[in-house]
């Protein structure tokens, strides 16, 4: 809902153009004016830093609408007149907007009207009036889910192979087989029901569920595999129906083939079988006819579906009637009727070798086992996704999918269990193994009904495949993840004609091939892969139990989903490990392609929730105690633009991210990029959001692992003081503050910089944060610029080993790997020099660091000549300090106040000032003497002296860094970051 502030901004200057008559608006809308807001676009990367700008440069079109005012007085809330007479709003306190009252609920459910976006979301606010779209035909539970699932599950395997399976496995193991495969689909149905009832569900069925739970890459890869499986399965069903028809009516064959010799021997009675060309011709014709039905839309499909289902149900009645009416004296050989003797005889398994046709043969090439029967029978229980594939055509997905799918699963599983008991009791084992059409042999009153049932069941399954597959493909295309699928997009409520053409093309191509034995196991693998994805999605969502996880279907648990996923994987390997590897490889290739070519889709998937939970658990396990040096990682807080101005549209110095990457080993670690905007938060909140987007673009462009934060504060000092206290969580708080040295402060006469700079350093010291100040950032090398020479460390004070560690991290980068480290130790007395050198060498050896150690005593400074440029800088600094001190004294005498600087009293010891200047002079001369050719120079950061003006400290620092091209000024934070121990 819009806040009052949103409303005030929206009530501003510009007006919006209406596409229709203003009188068509409800009175609560009339009289409202909305100011256009410039849209933001943060998705494009750039090659030049100066062109990084997430905001669109194009101005939005300004529009007007002639709306009649409907308010009593200016500034008052508009009266509502949607239902009944006008009255005063009772919810003014909560800042409700009248437009939201009318459109809000409908836009939440994604129905007919969408509420305009908030100006704070960065989108143009517009109101468009459209003519109502024709309401698409929606299906209920029976015709939308139950019938499609039933038609897909009840296939040709039940009619021509199920009795044979009972004869081969026996009644006992057949029941186990049905329970094993049925448990997989039942558990998948439970998971499907839970996810489908957790909110509004668009088109795409299992793809939509998996994609929203496991992410777009996984969703698209499994969704495309499932689409391919449905399309090829349609060809399988068509070929099965055509082959059964030609077996039942041989005279219909155009090009019949006659087999007279088998394995080189003549046959007593030649066998006539359908020709491959007959299968192709009839298969193409049937596929085209089914496609015409699919093109007719959901209404046509719902009309035709009963014509395919009713004869199937009638054939089942005839089969069971024949079983119950069968007698011992039945003329058919091997038909015993319902007999306890047959039940006992057929209870145990009879695994053996058979020919390719399934006839027992001791010399047969195929040996059947329980694992092999799993692969043969499992396609008979697939098809539970047929209803969810049509989710976009359902009236109520949250009710229809669970009820319809579960009813179809339980109905068919019960039918299979009863059939196992009846088939095992009605015939001998030899009859079960040799009569492939036992269902037709025992059907009452005549076998032709079963042939009709077989043909119509397979055609019904083919119709459902050709209906679900295009809708699945269109749903994937509509999500706009893969641009290559844009041709298959459809408008909501429209039929996916292009996707249907493509599905028909694949189906006809497979029909032309004719022999699908090589790829039919892969189809089963795609189904199992989809089922495993649904189970894993429910497992992840149920285990994480995010606040948004509130499914209406309560009969679920993460353990059931996990068992279901494991069952799917086990069945895949039981059927064929080779085809399992092929299907997983294909899904992996699609996943890899989507991750490279696909667009980002932030769907709030379960993995994001898992990362969040893992981060919370890791953060709690880290605790708030001090991190051990062995586990210490630098977490730099990069101060992006504290001094001066950068070019327009450049949110950060281009080399700061390069330097931040140098502080990480192999890129591991997190950086926090911070910028401060001066002003009032309420006035500049939108500027902060835009700047944050801009900074994020910069971080992505520089390929730096980090996050961006923009803070609005009255001034830089207060902003940084808040940041250094609050930024981060637990032990994931930033531990190093990185900023650029303010080299421009004197050149551009920026008088506020010294106080701000000194305040930031003092804040870091108080907060126990390490500080790294980079001088010469413009010359810092990128990853392609190789550096040679030395990395020189002027180690003056103990800093916990931070300076040593940073130098070692530099060596891990390609640009500095050719450098060597030199450690310069400053000793106060000559007598300490040798002992200090030995101690430092031993220390570096124990730290596994290779470096040359050089000890310089302070007494030796007296005898060496200073560098000429250092002397000139020293003299200039003395003059400026004297002038500044004189102005302070004059002001204090005039105002009769103590010496004041930076708004606070100071105490100036002129001898101490001279001592500090002299110390920095000597150190600068030493650096220029030994490290002129160094790639990088490290030096300890002196803390700002108490009661000294910030101007003085800047003079000390300027003298220290004078003429040193690339310098890192480092201060530790009273904690060890390196350790001697393993």
Automatic annotation (TrEMBL):
A GO molecular-function annotation: potassium:chloride symporter activity
Specify where the region named Disordered lies, as residue ranges: 1-86
Q: Which UniProt keywords apply?
A: Glycoprotein, Ion transport, Membrane, Potassium, Potassium transport, Symport, Transmembrane, Transmembrane helix, Transport
Database matches in PANTHER family: CATION-CHLORIDE COTRANSPORTER 1, SOLUTE CARRIER FAMILY 12, CATION COTRANSPORTERS
The similarity annotation says: Belongs to the SLC12A transporter family.
How does the UniProt record describe the way this protein sits in the membrane?
Answer: Multi-pass membrane protein
Can you say where in the cell this protein is located? Membrane
The source organism is Anisodus acutangulus
Taxonomy, superkingdom: Eukaryota
- List the lineage, top down: Eukaryota, Viridiplantae, Streptophyta, Embryophyta, Tracheophyta
Residue ranges with Polar residues bias: 76-86
Protein name stated in the entry: Cation-chloride cotransporter 1
Q: Which positions fall inside the SLC12A transporter C-terminal domain?
A: 654-775, 786-981
Q: Which residue intervals are annotated with compositional bias (Basic and acidic residues) in the record? A: 1-10
Q: Name one GO cellular component term.
A: membrane
